[in-house]
Amino acid sequence: MTQPNFSDSEQPFLSHLIELRSRLLRIVLAVLLIFLCLAPYANEIYSYLSVPLLKHLPENSTMVAIDVASPFFTPFKLSLVCAGFIAVPVILYQIWAFVAPGLYAHEKRLILPLLIASTALFYIGVAFAYFVVLPLLFAFLTTTAPVGVTVMTDIAKYLDFTLTLFLAFGVTFEVPIFTIVLIWTGLVTPQQLSDARPYIIVGAFVVAMFLTPPDALSQTLLAVPICLLFEAGLLFARFFIPKAHYQNDDLEAKFDLIEKDENRG
To answer: What angle do CA 235, 241, 242 make, to 5 degrees?
Structure first.
């Protein structure tokens, strides 16, 4: 018996693995290069991050470092995360370059603008969290401390808190992209999403409850943009609907009218 030859089928798979490895290495190198540029300014970057809290701390109150190594490692951790945020366009481009050869021409024309828009929305979400949410949140939280309790936040805990908010708002600001992709792929129609609006609003507050700290203010500040961004995605998604969707919607509308006329008759 002759042994089957898998070389022809394995070759494309191996070539894809090699290309994937090269793309991942480029992403890692880009993040490391940006990190090396930011590392000398790690303390200054952390000081800028702490501004929303320091503005609302009581007089003679400062941030503290509980762990011995926190003053050294925490600013560098922030610099590494910032490097990843800054490298988002590079990361998305490498993902685009990897999947683009397997896409049709009309898919390429759609996905590239979506990648650019998703990058911009992610940065807008992070900026919204820093310039709007954090000042309002700390203005509220620093005034709720019981009498005799001095607000002095640990620098590592503060970093984890703010990064969680940045990630939550950055991801949730991608709601218009998710909406457009769902409609473009044909999984749902605009009418179906419009009919599900009450459930989506409730879901937005549930998601905000899990992604934000346990206070009503931050949950509301996240849930309301989710609802507004969903409406924006639903509006712009109509420009990406295949013609078949319009035809199906028209047919459904005609059948509804026929059924209504028959019931009346």
So the answer is: 170
3-state secondary structure 138-157: HHHHCCCCCCCCCCCCEHHH
d(CA 21, CA 15): 10
Q: What is the DSSP string of 104-172?
A: -HHHHHHHHHHHHHHHHHHHHHHHHIIIIIHHHHHHHHTT-PPTT-----BHHHHHHHHHHHHHHHHHH
The C-alpha atoms of residue 89 and residue 101 are separated, in whole angstroms, by 19
Burial 9-35 (b: 16+ CB within 10 A, else e): eeeeeeeeeeeeeebeeebeebbeebb
C-alpha 34/C-alpha 82 separation (Å) is 9
The dihedral sign for the CA sequence 65, 66, 72, 77: negative
d(CA 190, CA 182): 9
Q: What is the pLDDT of residues 35-58, one digit of tens each?
A: 999 999 999 999 999 999 888 887
Q: Is the dihedral of CA 137, 226, 177, 114 positive or negative?
A: negative
For 56-67, the pLDDT digits (tens) are: 887 777 888 888
CB distance 225 to 251 below 8 Å: no
What type of residue sits at position 209?
M
Mean pLDDT of the chain: 81
- Cα Rg for the chain, rounded, in angstroms? 25
* Integer CA distances (angstroms), 165 to 139, 170, 208, in order: 16, 8, 10
Judge whether 171 and 123 are in contact, CB under 8 Å.
no
Tokens for 102, please give them: 């397997």
